[in-house]
Amino acid sequence: QVQLVESGGGLVQAGGSLRLSCPASGSTFSEYRMGWFRQAPEKEREIVAAITWSGGSTYYADSVKGRFTISRDKAKKTVSLQMNSLKPEDTAVYYCAADRQGRGSRAIEYDYWGQGTQVTVSS
Question: d(Cα 70, Cα 24) in Å, to the nearest integer?
Fold first, then answer.
């Protein structure tokens, strides 16, 4: 069992920054892939970024590449998402998730989910 709880969302002006954090409790294995997803109203949940727990290899969606940075702190068992140069189209509920198989790129492939945190970017 793995439990995830996101925090750090809020309201920010376009061009600003936010940092989301997701501490994990329970068992976290080195083979896991940790991901950040987002879902805007009436849109499907989409992957934003992902990182392997052991090696730290990263993936970014084209829409956030160069602006967002995913990282993990093994000692604190925490995955973070640093979001810079935010745009109004980044507005969504953001979720952290864990994939036991370590290869997931879609929401259906992830096994554990946090409750979500709202990010709102104003013009």
Answer: 15
